[in-house]
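hey m, so remember when u said the tokens were messed up on ur end? i reran from scratch. heres the input so u can diff it against urs
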Amino acid sequence: MISRTVVTFVLAVCILPAQQSRRVDDNTLKSAGKAGEEWLTYGLTQGETRYSPLNQINTSNVSRLAPGWSYDLGPGGGPQEATPLVSNGTLYGITNWSVVFAVDARTGKERWRWDPEVNQTAVFPKICCGVVNRGIAIYQGMIIAPVIDGRLLALNAETGKPIWEARVAYPQDQQTITMAPRIAKGKVIIGVSGGDRPTRGYFDAYDAMTGKKAWRFYTVPGDPSKGFENSDMRKAAATWDGEWWKLGGGGAVWDGMAYDPEADLIYIGTGNAEPWPEALRKTNGKDNLYVCSILAVQPETGELKWHYQMVPGDSWDYDSVQHLILADLNIGGRQRKVIMQANKNAFYYVMDRVTGQFISAQPFSMVTWAKGIDQKTGRPIVNPEANYGEEAIPISPGGGGAHNWSPMSFNPNTGLVYIPTSTANTFTYAAADTYSGTGTGTARPTPPNPRPAPPAIGPEPLEGQGNNRGALVAWDPVAQQMKWRMPGGGGIGGGTVTTAGNLVFQSINDGRLVAYSADKGEKLAEIQTGLRGGMGPPITYQIDGKQYVAVMGGTGPVMPRNGQAPATPATPPVLPKLLTYSLAP
């Protein structure tokens, strides 16, 4: 009897850790976000809604938010754009230089830290658009981590030790990785940055358990003399002209992804054409598939099921890689399974995510490049004056976009989407000028004597705040109209999360964390984090019955280019940190 009791006790002790450290599999990810305690994938749900059902922190008490624990992220060098993940009582994150860490989600005590030891001196000049990393994935006891130098790694979630490594891209080819990977049917889906260099965009699928590449989908066609990888590339080649492949073509995949397991489709946003001006590409006004598009592919095979191109023949750097959200909306009296995007080009798009059918699009910010979107065909009605050549012209929005990488969020209770927006963003374009899109990395001078700007449509910009005029815009995707707007932030930097507590949290690049009522946009709390810049999007999680809000930020000293010493900043840079907040007693 004593022996049996001892054996039973030992078995109970052995079983308990296995129950506590449950593995994240496909079914777990499919139901991610329903309870809200954990944050298991980049957008909280596979539909990327960033809506949490937690409501312990709500409109009645959010003003009582107080600092909790903090964690020093280590040396900086760029913004902290990553979304942390929370699983099994551990918070996992990744820094801009791809250092992965795990800390106790209750206390912030470090459990492990793994540095891929990127050759920063060699890689830095090859990076297109900043030293950033937007996140990681969790799957089957592993942390899947993208490394900015083009590697993809699987680390043991308990120890941080490497399990496998794959090579996605090479910085020598001017391609890097800055996006968060996603998991779909046992595959890791990841794309490459480098769209403002002479590169050819693509995204890959890797077996999550072994790291073996399953398939690759190129987003633009290559040299026809070498043959086309598939019928999609042959079809796309008919929409280009000249010797486009010698200039790369563009179509980088550096953000924007969602997955619908019921439709068995993963959705990918693609980047701008390369070089920017159509006049330099010499493609004679053709569409240039599949740049500036949303692609729907099957995760097992990479087969393209449908595509929709936001900006055919793009000349304005209007990537379509912005945050994608899946939702079920009542439109025209019937329930529609939709995919939504607040595009860089300042139009908010709603489409059928199963068929790719265009439903609607309206401007959520100031627009001069187009007169609108044809609501029957979904094609833009391009303003003829926006088709620039050697003569310069100011266009809105500019290359930074009305909405860039900063994640938006969708609250099913209010029916609103919360978009970090630049309400007036203008750039002066001219095909003859040197600009970053030629691959030289040279700063683009402002062309002299530009033509007058075309007439504008869309919401009036906020007054003041210079060219950016940032705001948080609450948008009704069914009515396609703005419900409220509050100043602060912009299309680049920070992001949002919304909750069942009728709240929207927004992190702003000046270091503020702000809470609004989700229905009316009333500012209920404003926290000065002290980070001053380089803010990532906030998340929320709950552990031991206590809800937390967490955010990463701070840039730290930025590495100089070409071996030159960096200029001494007016104020010393703030070392990057991960901060948490919870309700004060």
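this time it looks ok to me. The chain is about 5% helix and 35% strand. if urs says something different then somethings off w ur setup not the seq
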